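User: Show me sequence and structure for the first protein, then do the same for the second.

Assistant: Starting with the first protein.
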Amino acid sequence: MLNTVKNIWKVEDLRKRILFTLMILLVYRIGSFVPVPNINRDALAQANQQGSDLFGLLNTFSGGALFHFSIFALGIMPYITASIIVQLLSMDVIPKFSEWQKEGEIGKRKLAQVTRYGTVILGLIQAFATTIGFNRMFNVPMVINPSVATYATITIVLTAGTAFLMWLGEQINEKGVGNGISILMFAAIVSRIPQHARDIYASEFISASQLFMAIVKIVVILIAIVLIIAAVIYVQQGIRKIPVQYAKRVVGQKMYGGQSTHIPLKVNGAGVIPVIFASSLLMFPVTIAGFWSGKPWAQWIMSNLNYDKPLGMTFYVLLIIGFTFFYTFVQFNPQQMADNMKKNGGYIPGIRPGKPTQGYLMKLITRITLAGAIFLALISVLPVFFAALAGLPRSVSLGGTSLLIVIGVALETMKQIESQLIKRHYKGFINK
């Protein structure tokens, strides 16, 4: 491991990329503490104590910026929501989007531009709704001297913060290491770990009457976290290999084909994207209800659509499962795969090319994706029950969702670094 880290710094290009990524993360963390103008700090302190579990999860995703109500309070959630909408519309809903999706790199750039515009529009809506909702949610008014100009200023500042985060993520994609948006969310979640540790210490050790039971509880929590991490890594790395045989072809005086290969189907091909998508969409009605905070129906939405409530948890699980299937089939098209194999003289042993191959792949990927989707849903909601049984403070929201994101992003980033090392004949983290 130490040799691998040492080798990273020997590669100049990789060293520059890692340093650039760390610099971007430093800018992100500094911005998380830059306050929005015209905000009452007493109301923010009350928000930390009275906030719902869903807002606590969103606060974790923003690295604490939401309850600080800093310029990055919205985090990158508007960008994620815009990405969801654009991908959904690209599934033959808007023909132009579908056409762009098939154009390769040029089409991706056009869709990325649409996503940026969508991020700004959603950011404006969410910024205004969050400001109104927070101002009405607590006994102490959050906005100082509320007026149209004040609300407009706060909304523009929050939207600009989200747009800046989106730009930072794109800079990491181009000049850094890993997926920029995922890296920013990874940094936000990890930055909350010390605060969660302090909250657990304050509730279990300082105020606990029985020190021995508190220590036992902490040990059990740590064991549960280690088991969850091991399970996530095991499933994330799980692959089903589909054997493929290519027939021999004679072109001129040369013979092509005849080799055997395989199609790797990951158990969790969608990664952590479904969990992020589900969290983002679950937040949307709560944000809209913030416009009418105080109304009975709005209060019902904000109370029952938390992921720790039965209704909210049900929606959360269904969204995770649904988006797992959606994102997997966006990445892996059985019909296109079967057609490409048939054109190149490939076939799966025992399966006829064409439609039978397509049906076989569809059946297989559906089974694998179902297992991965159920696993994602279980890992996301089980820690809610464990936290309730352990009596952890509500401010501690580092549950299965956060662990999934952290582990998934860490694995993907390690793979990218490892691929760069292997190109230069160095051993990586995983391959020994």
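Switching to the second protein now.
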Amino acid sequence: MALILIIEDNPINRDVLGRRLERRGFAIRFAEDGPSGIAAAKLLMPDVILMDIGLGEMDGYEATRCIRADPATAAVPIIALTASAFESDRVKALAAGCIDFDTKPVDLPRLLGKIAAVMGTKAPMAATDQN
């Protein structure tokens, strides 16, 4: 079972996205901010990290750079998640070390496709998932 680490400061977003991904067969772990996300990435060695960009004191860009700087976690794929859909945000996320970028609210089929792409697997079906 693939492990996804969700680094997200909003408890509702964590809960909703976590439950939706668990229903698709993923093991889910959470971190509430950049520093705890960096520590969790090293401890858990997840298959994929979903990184909120607007985390507060240490934003997702900086947390991504820290994860990339550690040889133990440098290769873990990170997908940025943000409510901001500007091209400049995507460019900034990729420059920080994210392998992909997606917007909130999350379109689950699209996100599953991105997760599958970075993991090199087929995306689980999500067409009937509405919550």
